[in-house]
């Protein structure tokens, strides 16, 4: 493989962890490697490349191609170097006459059954078979043409063993004529992805890679299009369609995925300013060379025809848009913002930023509110997903973030997953977790649905607690009841790291009979014995970790649930060592970063309250303006104030609040009541239907900056192409601020990071120079931890002593009844992302083109609903229609849908109920009724008509 394609050398077999080392000699070079290392990898460590075809360090050694044979003193024959472990004093020869003859013979056999169309092959210059033929010195093939797997196919032979190309997948092509049956793809699907979608069928000459049953292709099979098979294929058998279309890349830009909170590192393989393919970085510490269908393939939205690249304005939201220049758009926006403040007061305007934006962009937006608008009216979409994480973990541990890195999962003995669906929402992490489950780790899932993680191939038994939506606190406290009652807690840890008297008070609280599994069973509908089994399993595991998602936080007791999770971890000593911890799986790419950067109305960057005089003094000195000490408005408060006539202007960067926030009617009414709404985004979205100014944004491929993932890892985002709108997003915010008199003069995002480091203790050691050198770091990164902090709370909690908090279960105000007897909960699906603005503009639509309602067969039968029928989904807030899917993944009384498609607008039925501490909406519990329907609701028809009218654009002036 050419260096310009794969800059990181493939060592042939995976690295081995061992406390002992072995000395050996390879071609006269002395090498010391960990015990258990393969001879092939030892040779690579010495700088010696052993020819190979079936071997790669992505997967375990297989030993099928026989190209990597070597000679070892004292050992008979020529063993395969990939499957032969090193031994003390071993002397290895990788180049001898006998070895050369064997390798040439092997290559002749491969080439005799391979089409020699190298000059027109899409993998020309990027083909390991081609490279290995050169490496062994093959110059001719002695075998006469005979039966093979390509000529007959070209001639149209009817023999079933000759198969046509499989072009069913929208992103890659499978050409069986070029397959050398090395099994790399099969092993990658098993070992890296954990899907087991591929297999080798047949024997000998009839061996073939198969994507499933006889009638399956790559689209209809269990393949999840993660790209692992494409990445390891040594020929053009599995190859990206973009490579076929465009050609070989000519340079690489390292960047970070802009989808979920895993924060995968990618190498953008470019030809000029065109992306040819996105390849997961082998040195990416969050993803370790793996990816999912979104990050690997769904980046085409960046160049989609729907992109708006010019600013637009209009006097009223009923008018069509008018394309204008940047100066006119910014002047229009600034004038209206100042007019709103002049007429209604300094607090009449505010900002909302997005977790899709970089740290630097988010920092500037909250600075815009505080230093330019003169108020603290700044909020973020993290409000509607993980604000309870910040509150709950800060209260219990002293810091508002996850405790461990993703590598920690490799050492866990049991994973407790609550309110998260990693295979759909965080698939790369899910693959790592599945690998650990196959190695024998235990699994406990608390979720109303039966998620795919429970059906992990070759896993032992997993416990599923199918709790009723809204009862997380009750079940977790019941687990604590069992642990305390049976004295399963870690007394040594608690006495050393927590307040013992506080724990005893908590123990008395949880021992109350109302918290027993038997009592909780009546509320949560989880068998008491199952709750007890889960509690004992968690307490008994030497190292247990907890992973949770929006099914924890998006509840009226979201913050209480986070505290209950923290209680479990502390009482069992599962904090501060690898394999343990409390780990929130952040939904979007920069949820953690948007919180870190002070986007909430009550906190400056670094989670310091606005009322703290010392913190304000820091920013007043650096920003040069006086700052307010009173918290500003949260997003729900902005909406309420707008309807009351007090809040009149909003700058919304990168967030589609109409589709993503609860009670859509309330949101649209609030936006329609404002004098000035500025939307800064890639596309005209649902929120822009109510906007007066549209400022075109830049995609992650068009900007420099940083994202912070769910493990607190700060990753670089690097510009791979010129912004289509002419400006990176931070520049647009700066131009708006300067129109309002700010006089900012940042020349590059690195200068913004310098200011963040200057003012934020947990980021004080962060710089672009450090990130370029180290690849990434995890905050806190400061004088005490100059290279970052992979594990938090190792020697003690940030707050000092860990705090046990009483977690009283208080039922949600959202109750079922005769009118609304079912409970709706919502979530995501693998192929789509959040409100779908990006993924709906890619070929991912082939897997999920509409939101569907999952309903249990018994509930469907009671309502006369059949699979695929249109149904009316109604709540106290509103109604919508969508198609039904009958499934036993949900329990009777529970229905489930996604929120990716604006044609459904699932949030029109969700209510304004929210978490008691943070106002995080209660998306996961809505009382609904389901009934047959003939098609779209009246509201959907009205909304579709309004949306079409709101997106009219006047033709450009001649």
UniProtKB/TrEMBL annotation:
Q: Which residues form a coiled coil?
A: none
Gene3D superfamilies in alphabetical order: 2.40.40.20, 3.10.20.740, 3.30.70.20, 3.40.50.740, ADC-like domains, Dimethylsulfoxide Reductase, domain 2
* Domain called 2Fe-2S ferredoxin-type: residue spans: 20-98
Taking every annotated instance into account, which residue ranges of this chain make up the domain 4Fe-4S His(Cys)3-ligated-type? 98-137
Q: PROSITE patterns attached here?
A: 2FE2S_FER_2, 4FE4S_FER_1, 4FE4S_FER_2, 4FE4S_HC3, 4FE4S_MOW_BIS_MGD, MOLYBDOPTERIN_PROK_1
Report TM segments. Answer: none
> Which EC class heads this enzyme's classification?
oxidoreductase
Q: Matching InterPro entries, A to Z?
A: 2Fe-2S_ferredoxin-like_sf (IPR036010), 2Fe-2S_ferredoxin-type (IPR001041), 4Fe4S_Fe-S-bd (IPR017896), 4Fe4S_Fe_S_CS (IPR017900), Asp_de-COase-like_dom_sf (IPR009010), Formate_Dh-H_N (IPR041924), Formate_DH_asu (IPR006478), MoPterin_dinucl-bd_dom (IPR006657)
Q: What is stated as this protein's family in its record? A: Belongs to the complex I 75 kDa subunit family.
- Its recorded name reads Formate dehydrogenase subunit alpha
């Amino acid at each position: 493989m050419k260096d310009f394609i794969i800059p990181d050398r493939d060592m042939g077999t995976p690295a081995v962890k061992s406390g002992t080392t072995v000395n050996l000699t390879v071609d006269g070079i002395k090498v010391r490697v960990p015990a258990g290392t393969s001879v092939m990898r030892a040779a690579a460590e010495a700088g010696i490349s052993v020819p190979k075809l079936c071997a790669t360090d992505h997967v375990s050694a297989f030993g099928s191609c026989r190209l990597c044979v070597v000679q070892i003193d004292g050992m008979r024959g020529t063993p395969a170097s990939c499957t032969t472990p090193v031994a003390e004093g071993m002397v290895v020869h990788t180049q001898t006459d006998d070895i050369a003859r064997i390798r040439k013979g092997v290559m002749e056999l491969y080439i005799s059954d391979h089409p020699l169309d190298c000059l027109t092959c899409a993998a020309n210059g990027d083909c390991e078979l081609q490279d290995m033929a050169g490496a062994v010195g093959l110059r001719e093939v002695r075998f006469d043409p005979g039966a093979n797997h390509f000529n007959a196919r070209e001639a149209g032979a009817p023999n079933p063993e000759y198969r046509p190309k499989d072009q069913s997948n929208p992103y890659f092509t499978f050409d069986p004529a070029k397959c050398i049956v090395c099994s790399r793809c099969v092993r990658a699907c098993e070992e890296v992805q954990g899907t087991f979608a591929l297999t080798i069928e047949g024997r000998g000459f009839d061996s073939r890679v198969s994507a499933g049953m006889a009638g399956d292709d790559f689209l209809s099979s269990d393949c999840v299009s993660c790209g692992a098979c494409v990445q390891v294929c040594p020929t053009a058998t599995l190859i990206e369609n973009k490579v076929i279309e465009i050609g070989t890349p000519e340079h690489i830009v390292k960047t970070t995925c802009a989808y979920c909170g895993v924060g995968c590192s990618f190498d953008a393989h470019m030809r000029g300013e065109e992306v040819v393919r996105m390849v997961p970085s082998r040195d990416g510490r969050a993803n370790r060379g793996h990816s999912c269908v979104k990050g690997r393939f769904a980046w085409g939205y960046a160049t989609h025809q729907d992109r708006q690249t010019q600013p637009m304005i209009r006097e009223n939201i009923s008018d069509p848009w008018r394309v204008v220049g940047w100066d006119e758009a910014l002047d229009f926006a600034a004038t209206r913002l100042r007019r709103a403040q002049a007429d209604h007061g300094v607090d009449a305007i505010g900002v909302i930023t997005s977790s899709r934006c970089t740290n630097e962009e988010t920092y500037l937006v909250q600075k815009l509110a505080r230093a330019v608008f003169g108020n603290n009216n700044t909020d973020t979409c993290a409000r509607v997903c993980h604000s309870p994480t910040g509150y709950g973990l800060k209260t219990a541990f002293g810091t508002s973030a996850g405790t461990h890195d993703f590598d920690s999962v490799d050492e866990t003995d049991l994973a407790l997953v609550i309110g998260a669906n990693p295979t759909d929402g965080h698939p790369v992490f899910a693959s790592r977790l599945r690998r650990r489950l196959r190695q024998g780790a235990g699994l406990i899932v608390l979720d109303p649905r039966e998620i795919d993680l429970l059906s992990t191939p070759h896993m032992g038994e997993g416990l599923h607690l199918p709790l009723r939506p809204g009862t997380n606190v009750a079940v977790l406290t019941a687990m604590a009841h069992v642990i305390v009652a049976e004295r399963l807690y870690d007394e040594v840890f608690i006495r050393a790291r927590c307040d013992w008297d506080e724990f005893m008070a908590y123990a008395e609280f949880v021992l109350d009979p109302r918290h027993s599994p038997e009592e909780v069973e009546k509320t949560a509908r989880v068998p008491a014995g199952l709750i007890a089994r889960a509690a004992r399993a968690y307490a008994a595991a030497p190292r247990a970790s907890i992973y949770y998602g929006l099914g924890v936080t998006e509840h009226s007791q979201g913050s209480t649930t986070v505290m209950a999770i923290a209680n479990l971890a502390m009482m069992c000593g599962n904090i501060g060592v690898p394999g343990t911890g409390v780990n929130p799986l952040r939904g979007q790419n920069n949820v953690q970063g948007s919180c870190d950067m002070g986007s909430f109305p009550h906190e400056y960057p670094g989670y310091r309250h606005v009322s703290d005089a010392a913190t304000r003094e820091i920013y007043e000195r650096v920003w040069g303006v006086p700052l307010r000490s009173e918290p500003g408005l949260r997003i729900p408060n902005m909406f309420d104030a707008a309807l009351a006539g007090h809040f009149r202007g909003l700058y919304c960067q990168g967030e589609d609040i109409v589709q993503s926030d609860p009670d859509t009617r309330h949101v649209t009414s609030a936006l329609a009541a404002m004098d000035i709404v500025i939307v800064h985004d890639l596309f005209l979205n649902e929120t822009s239907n109510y906007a007066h100014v549209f400022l075109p944004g830049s995609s992650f491929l068009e900007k420099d900056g940083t994202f912070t993932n769910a493990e607190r890892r700060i990753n670089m985002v690097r510009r791979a192409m010129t912004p289509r709108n002419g400006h990176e997003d931070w520049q647009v915010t700066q131009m708006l601020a300067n129109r309002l008199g700010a006089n900012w003069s940042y020349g590059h995002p690195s200068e913004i990071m310098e200011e963040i480091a200057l003012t934020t203790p947990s980021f004080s050691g962060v710089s672009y120079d450090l990130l370029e050198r180290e690849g990434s770091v995890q905050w806190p990164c400061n004088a005490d931890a100059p290279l970052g902090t992979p594990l938090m709370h190792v020697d003690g909690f940030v707050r000092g002593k860990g705090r046990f908090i009483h977690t009283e279960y208080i039922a949600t105000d959202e109750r079922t009844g005769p009118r609304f007897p079912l409970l709706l909960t919502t979530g995501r699906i693998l192929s789509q992302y959040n409100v779908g603005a990006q993924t709906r503009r890619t070929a991912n639509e082939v897997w999920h083109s509409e939101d569907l309602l999952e309903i249990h067969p018994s509930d469907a039968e009671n309502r006369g609903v059949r699979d695929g029928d249109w149904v009316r989904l109604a709540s106290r807030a509103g109604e919508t229609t969508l198609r039904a899917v009958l499934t036993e993944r949900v329990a009777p009384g529970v229905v489930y849908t996604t929120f990716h498609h604006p044609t459904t607008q699932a949030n029109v039925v969700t209510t304004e109920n929210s978490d008691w501490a943070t106002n995080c909406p209660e998306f996961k519990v809505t009382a609904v009724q389901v009934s047959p329907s003939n098609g779209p609701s009246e509201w959907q028809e009205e909304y579709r008509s309004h949306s079409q009218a709101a997106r009219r654009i006047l033709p450009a002036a001649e």
